[in-house]
Write a structure and sequence with these properties.
The chain is built from 1 helix and 12 strands. It is mainly β and 154 residues long. The strands form 3 sheets. Strands 1, 2, 3, 4 and 5 form a 5-stranded antiparallel beta sheet that branches. A 4-stranded antiparallel beta sheet has the order 6-7-8-9, with no helix packed on it. Strands 10-11-12 form a 3-stranded antiparallel beta sheet. The longest helix is centred in the C-terminal third of the chain and has 4 residues. The N and C termini lie far apart (35 Å).
């Protein structure tokens, strides 16, 4: 086991949303939500050649939220539930610098959705994002999938 980030100041424990991770070759990329000393937010960290790089903030917010992550040799995409405001939506943070900086932030879910539980995948130039949406009536929740080319997301 390797500690990625030991700065959590909350008492949330196991009630915190679980981290999401993906591997690329021998490297591990992780996105997670926590109460850091500088504020609550979504963070990203990764290992390269066995070394853990310092965590990078993706976004700060009012509450802990679910995350999903995908990556390839240069790009990292973190999907997360919006941590601010009352509207439930799924946002994307896109890095083309292996997660050292998240250059693009955009909303992925539709304005009609109450979106939670993100899932994200990347292959070549295709990016797929998925979330669960609840209807406003008694209809059961459904999963929505959106697929596009990386150039159309950033």
């Amino acid at each position: 086991p390797t500690a990625v980030d030991t700065t959590d100041v909350s008492s949330t424990g196991c009630r915190r949303p679980p981290p999401s991770l993906v591997t690329v070759g021998g490297d591990v990329y992780v996105a997670y939500s926590m109460d850091a000393p500088e504020g609550t937010g979504v963070f990203f960290a990764h290992t390269m050649s066995g070394m853990v790089h310092s965590p990078v903030p993706v976004i700060y917010g009012e509450r802990l939220v679910a995350t999903a992550i995908t990556a390839d040799a240069k790009r990292v995409v973190v999907a997360y539930e919006e941590p601010n405001g009352r509207r439930e939506q799924i946002n994307l943070a896109i890095s083309v610098s292996q997660g050292h900086l998240f250059e693009t932030h955009t909303t992925a879910s539709r304005s009609v959705d109450n979106a939670t539980a993100p899932v994200v995948a990347l292959r070549d130039s295709l990016l797929a994002i998925s979330w669960i949406t609840r209807g406003t009536d008694d209809s059961p929740p459904s999963r929505v999938v959106r697929v596009g080319r990386m150039g159309s997301w950033n």
